[in-house]
Write a structure and sequence with these properties.
Layout (H helix, E strand, L loop, with lengths): L7 E5 L4 H12 L3 E6 L2 H13 L3 E6 L5 H15 L4 E4 L14 H32 L5 E6 L12 H24 L3 E6 L27 H16 L4 H13 L4 E2 L5 H13 L13 H10 L3
Parallel strand pairs: 1-2, 1-4, 2-3, 4-5, 5-6, 6-7
Helix pairs in contact: 1-7, 3-4, 4-5, 6-9
The structure holds nicotinamide-adenine-dinucleotide.
Length: 301
Amino acid sequence: MHDFHDKVAVITGGASGFGKAFAVLGASLGMRLVLADIDQGALDAVVEELQATGATVIGKRTDVSRSTDVQALADTAVGAFGQVDLLFNNAGVAPGGLVWERSEQDWNWALGVNLHGVIHGVRIFTPLMLAAAAKDPSYRGHIVNTASVAGLTTAPTLGPYCVTKHAVVALSESLYHDLALVSEQVHCSVLCPGFVATGISRSDRNLPSEDATATEPSRAQRAAMAMLDQGIAAGTLSADDVARTTFDGIRDLRFYLLPHPGSIQAVRQRFDEILDLRNPTGPFAENSPIRETLTASLRGE
Ligand SMILES: NC(=O)c1ccc[n+]([C@@H]2O[C@H](COP(=O)([O-])OP(=O)(O)OC[C@H]3O[C@@H](n4cnc5c(N)ncnc54)[C@H](O)[C@@H]3O)[C@@H](O)[C@H]2O)c1
């Protein structure tokens, strides 16, 4: 897709962070937007902010973990604009803690939003794009699934997150292979950023209320949050930078989008360890400030 003007983008998690940055950039390129988010207040604020700049944008409250909500999102987008050209399966949450420590509900929450949310998006929107392509040879569709560098490596205290993001990478690669069998007009990419300042380290704000545990976060959960905060504070790229890299990747039909050049080394290290049959060292080397923060907060310091 080279020309974004007048094209229709659906963006999940559009009320904050990367989703909002995709929306701002898309609007500046003249796209028509459908923003979806579980947080109605934040969604309304972003829709109003963009409409004030003259953008054509609507908001649809959506819980991406529910297929009926994602179907209603697709119906809304097609009802308003006739078709969808660009889909960002982007909404996500990052529960932290030791891998055995999060409850069954927390695992279901992470899998529901990060994995099933993307599965619903792919299942419901891909046939719409293929139908649009069959009708119009000039139609171009593109799906971007937001995974993470945590989908290509693993890290301590982020078990459920890493599990879901590895699955999103596998799902996206499968989607790539399957699309290549049936169409030259619909493409996909997987976005794998490193740490960026967004609302992600506070994603427990979106924990469904029936799942909210009465207890305070455990020491390991607080350690994971401190680690995310520290990584984010040390991050060199903004959400706007990631949005620009993503749109460039869509233009160039690139599948793997890794906006942080430094993360390539972490990915290479993991694959070298697998191929050399060495035990995993993980992305935070001994003595790295992030590892020190993690171990100190696990000790309760
Ligand atoms: N920020 C980072 O460092 C980073 C790095 C790699 C990948 N990511 C991924 O980027 C994506 C966007 O996250 P972000 O960093 O912008 O965080 P963010 O918290 O700023 O934005 C996430 C948005 O998703 C929404 N959301 C949460 N649960 C939802 C649900 N069930 N249905 C619909 N919307 C829901 C939130 O309300 C929020 O607006 C996520 O998939 C995240 O895992 C983030």
